[in-house]
Amino acid sequence: IGHPEIFPLVLTTKTQEIFNCRIDEDVTEENCFKLIQKEDIIEDLKTRADISDFYPFKKVVLEYPGEELLVVFDANFQYGKNFYIVASEEAKENLIKPPETAEEEDREDTPEIHPFEPLVPKPWVSLGSEKEVEEESVKDTVTKIKYKISRIRRKFGAPIAFTDKNASHEKESYVECTSYEDKTFSIQMLERDVGVQVVPKVREASIQTKWTYPKNAATQYCPRQLSKEEKAESLSSERMKKFLTSVHLRMEIALQQNEIMNAFFDDWTALAEDKSGSDGKPDVYLKAYQSFTDLQYLKGRTISCVCCHPTICGIIAVSARKQLPYEDEVNLSSKSLLHQSVILFWSFFDLIRPQLVLECPEDIYCFQFNPSDPNIIAAGCINGQVVLWDISQHQKNLPNEKSVADETTDSDNEATAAAEAAAEVSPGVPSLKEVQQSSTEPPLVTSSAVSSTEYSHKKPVTDIQWLPRNLEDNQKGGTSENRGENCLQLVTCSPDCSILFWDIPAIEKPSYEKAHEEKKLYKAPGVPDTSKHSDVGWKPLIKVVYANTEHRYQAKMPKSQSALRAPVKESPYTVMSTSSSKNLEVLENISTNFFVGNEDGGIVYFDWKMKTDTNSAKPTQKYALHTETINTLQRSPFFKDIFLSIGGQNFAIWKEEVTNGPILQSSCSAGSYTAGQWSLTRPGVLFIGRDNGNIDIWDLLKKTHEPSHFQNISKSVITFISPWTVSPEQHFLAVSDDLGVLHVLEICQTLSHPSSNE
Fold first, then answer.
1. pTM score, two decimals?
2. Domains of the chain: which residue ranges?
3. What is the pLDDT of residues 75-115, one digit of tens each?
4. What is the rounded distance in angstroms from the CA atom of residue 72 to the CA atom of residue 31?
5. Structural class in CATH, domain 286-324+338-394+442-469+488-504+536-562+588-751
6. How far apart are CA 486 and CA 719, in angstroms?
């Protein structure tokens, strides 16, 4: 109040570090002023948008006439918050003006002080003031009335005797002053204010129940027994017909009410289930943290897979595919759609553009980072091929901390000046505008290896998994010990009723200098360059075929594996992919069983290991539980023998040694379940996505018949869910939808901190 140019605000620790105004370091109670460039604040608003601390005062910042805004540290919370900004130049000058300068200016404005000199009396000279005093003085001009009171001399000093007497008896002793109307003060009233208000008439009344004389009453509980003739006569009587006609409508309404609502529902118990915290919000919630989308690569497309970088914090990768029904995807799996298929790497510190782009030959259905070396990425395409990338040379483009805005500005200015100088010296060098445009585009990484189309899946690759680093499969169907520390093999599955085991081929790093020297052919805009994705003869190591019509499982190997071991220079996986199973022992005491979900909603549990006598892999169990395609089949991160399957309108939890069915099966929901994941910190919590854009949170410690909480995330179908842990106190859940938007949600403490015996 009284300072309209002052706007209090709260600056978080992150904002204080960005603008160098940290409390007790850059600003103190004595030195509380900080000048910030207006351009830096505008840049922060563009970068962080509505999460910026200056976002509520965006209009004030944009309309500020000066170049620098004054931010003052309010140590005593005079205005209610830890900082406040000054929105006028005049107020800024008054606040930052030094005290010494103000004292000097006061000295210049103060007149000179002369020494005191005693006054010397002078003779009085009349100027006519005595006349004014005489005129203003009050004088008594009214003639006074004189009264003379006399008494007889002899009565002086005589004793006085008082008596009572009626004044009416003496005419001279009593004078009556009667009232009369004075016409001088009789003024006729022409206008007056009158107020009228309606008041209800109040009446007192009393009511009392009339008490009657009590009488004794009895109830007969023995039924009246009627004969058959009496019953027939009663049912056919007119009185019975009239009674049924009169109560028919009332009985019908009562039955309808019983069907509409439960008369025995306990509202008080239902009210107690909705527990709230001290701030009024539910204890179970998912808080929106960030959201990512891209108009160039994700517009009109569906996010098919989401993976977080295993080692770099704040980096998340997504793949997209065409918005087609599942049946159309299977039918168009071999058709090359005219669009650019990529995998995008996003960073939490740059929400505007992706940090890295992986070029793909076809739409990607699923992908995974190598657990031992995250620079190696394997993906399954919609046409059945398997692709590998090596991003080791582009790891510098994936930052794990945010750079300071001032350093970025200085580096951009230096790069701009260098580009302008180079353009002046050499006319063949690109212009300044071209340099700036090229610097903002994320690097495009081509694939290092693509599987052979002939030996790949014939339909989309629906799942891909890396085998454990201590195991290695051979061509004979046996499992050997991998003495290295890297994951060398992966397994893929597809609706073409086949499961393929792959060995990593020798990856050749792309030669960028040679690529720039080669002459590029003209390519129409929007058409993918298929020349980059040539087959290198990569073939699967083992092929397990499941024929739905005959219910047969077979394990097959390709005839030739010569192309699998082509030595390449400077390849980090050349030594790793060398065949080493000749000198290793075949492990006999390990489990080679695994779960597989099919399109019909069935769960198949069988051993892929080939038998020497039958040369086939037979199923151990088969369960027909789900009514639609299995979209999620995941192992619990806490129990190695517990699995989650999701498909159609229900989900189930399986235990590997239990052969009579699932240990927990949910009831059918109103809509379809489209994705799901286990919680990484709580063994009894599941996150399941639905086709209406909701996330169902199942807390099995509280409820097993229905979700304990649900929350709407999107208006479209949830396509993928991926949880990950940043720190023991911060957990996130990445949720993608059918509109090409990735939502990053922060998980509350109730869902991230397990109980002591969970």
1. 0.53
2. 6-96, 286-324+338-394+442-469+488-504+536-562+588-751
3. 888 888 888 888 888 777 877 775 555 556 666 666 777 78
4. 9
5. mainly beta
6. 31
